[in-house]
């Protein structure tokens, strides 16, 4: 049971990890553009509180990773991405483990 739970968490974190290059699915030449697309895709597929990755652990990791990414790539910040990041922080605050 624990192994399947860990696998499930890793599966949900994969797009997050991929979005900053910890998992290599973006070609090195694609860099930030590919990662931005992964972030946008995750946002589109996982509305606040629904979909994969809304557990407190996954949120805390993703929030940290996205903030670091946006600090390095400030042109990647768009209103929709910053609103989603804020929604994740609010959700985490209300759903602490």
Structure overview:
The chain has one domain. It has helices spanning 2-19, 31-45, 56-72, 79-94. The model has no long low-confidence stretch (mean pLDDT 78). By secondary structure, the protein is mainly alpha-helical.
Keywords:
97 residues, 68% helix, mainly alpha, single chain
How would you briefly describe this protein structure?
By secondary structure, the protein is mainly alpha-helical.
| Helix-strand topology string | HHHH
| Percentage beta strand | under 5%
**What count of helical segments does DSSP give?**
4
Q: Could you estimate the helical fraction of the residues in percent? A: 55-70%
**Mean pLDDT score, rounded?**
78
Note the gap between the termini.
19 Å
List the helices and strands and how they pair.
Elements: H1 2-19, H2 31-45, H3 56-72, H4 79-94
Helix pairs in contact: 1-2, 1-3, 3-4
């Amino acid at each position: 049971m624990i192994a399947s739970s860990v696998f499930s968490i890793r599966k949900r974190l994969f797009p997050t990890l991929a979005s900053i290059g910890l998992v290599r699915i973006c070609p090195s030449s694609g860099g930030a553009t590919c990662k931005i697309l992964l972030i946008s895709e995750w946002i589109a597929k996982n509305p606040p509180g629904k979909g994969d990755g809304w557990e407190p652990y996954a949120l805390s990791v993703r929030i940290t990773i996205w903030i670091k990414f946006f600090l390095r790539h400030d042109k990647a910040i768009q209103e929709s991405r910053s609103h989603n990041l804020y929604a994740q922080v609010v959700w985490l605050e209300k759903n602490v483990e």
